[in-house]
Amino acid sequence: MDPENITTPRPGSRGRIVMLVDNGVNGDSRVQKEARSAAEAGWDVVLLGKSPGKSEQHWMLGDARVRLLKVPGPMQRRRHEYRRAPLRAPLAYRPGPLAAYRKQKMKAWRADLKLRRIEANENGAALAKAALLPERVTAKVASRWVDTRVRRTNALEQRRKRMDAPLDRFTTAFWQRAMGDRAWRRLDPFLLDLDLAYGKVIDELKPDLIHANDFRMLGVGARAVMRARAAKRDVKLVWDAHEFLPGIKPWDPHPRWHVAQCLHELAYSKYADAVTTVSPTLAEMLVERHGLAEKPAVVLNAPDAEVSPEQAAEPVPDLRELCGIGPDVPLAVYSGAAAPQRGLDIMVESLPQLPGLHVAFIVLRPNSGYMTGLAERAAELGVADRVHILPYVPHYQVVRFLAAADLGVIPIHHWPNHEIALITKFFEYSHARLPFVVSDVKTMGAMVAETGQGEVFTAEDVTDYVRAVKAVLADPKKYREVYDRPGLLDQWTWEAQAAALDEVYTKLLPGSRRVSVERAAEVTV
Q1: Which residues is 58 bridged to in the sheet?
Q2: CA-to-CA dists, residue 513 to 42, 118, 136, 149, 520, angstroms
Q3: pLDDT tens string 477-521
Q4: What distance in Å separates the CA atoms of residue 164 and residue 257, rounded to the nearest whole number?
Q5: What is the Rg, in whole angstroms, of the alpha carbon atoms belonging to the chain?
Q6: End-to-end Cα distance, the chain
Q7: Which of 13, 293, 344, 385 has its CA 20 to 30 A from that of 45?
Q8: What is the C-alpha separation between 217 and 198, in angstroms, rounded?
Q9: Is residue 350 within 8 Å of 358, Cβ to Cβ?
């Protein structure tokens, strides 16, 4: 099947599902598994994501078609950033390339004067050299003046990005009061850039159901549903809430960003025909915040119990070989997102107290500033040879890859979303049959304490973390035996979750219920 010809419906499908995600798909195991399993269940699936480059990308994910869209972001820069600020910064250049041009022009002028002076020296022309003096003085003064204006320009740009001045806070509050939930249009118009990029493609695809992943895509999906219904096409919307938005640590430092996302989510949550989410605790919180008539279905981001023959045939990298250690060297592993609130620093800071232990970080961007900082800290502590920073492997290899470790660590800090989630790595570690060392966040800490599959330590407490690691390494068999309990791992498989998700789709599109092969044969006859 041609992945680029996505407007052509898949013959004999149960209906077309368009999935939306605000990333490049690679690295998002939940979205990949949703698309692949829905296609295997007979749905015609098109997964739309955001291209990391300037061109579109297309590929197949099992029987699902993937298309990464170009998302121009002219509105990502706010209107006030295009205007001069004669009162706040009278010396600043007007927004745009002028400041960089003036600075470069000054550099070129002074470089040219230097060469002319060299030529005058070589030719022994004392008079020509003297004649350059006024121009050199003028260039030096002009350069200092331009440098001053460039600094003022940069400072203004930073203030405008922070938007933490009293006037900025006033205007933010004003738009919230004046526009209510609709204020997101003023506070983060990039959400409209997203809608313009995705919306026209969704409309061309004419889906029966839109599956919007997370808060940014909720509005994109809802607006597409509104357009479709205005055109007399009944389209259903499933909102897949990955986290509790008011409780996240904003990744955009702009103070209006988080406010805008929360208002955007509140404005469009009412358009969802069904809601799915990642944990029972979050499901209850969503009901309370959005006044949902029905409790969201819980679809855990669990790993596949089985992989396809093609995937199984791919060689899995040897974790210990990549770390350069043998089978008897104790190894702790962390796999997942890397950020300060994830608490990875404790795994490095504790190493002087855990002689012989190696740690492996499996992260999306091994060369990120955060990971580079951890590597530098390890060098300061004299444990750099025991810290290994490695890239992701395909999601269907994660469990087999991690199984070579002695324990899996989840050292996250106390943040609202950390308290309520059973995150992906929880299930990946479990299927890899790894003993856990997990911080005392509410949901995961309670689960590990209940099952006995690991030790719980006080978040950000190095001493207690060392205690927990030593306890696991002293008797790993005790913790691994927990996984032998009948049914424990069976409930934590993607196959079980895919069935739950398929039931959500089928409930919204009852005429699409899958018919067994035997029944289909009877109908054909």
Answers
A1: 67
A2: 10, 84, 82, 67, 12
A3: 999 999 999 989 998 999 999 999 999 999 999 887 765 333 333
A4: 12
A5: 28
A6: 28
A7: 293
A8: 9
A9: no
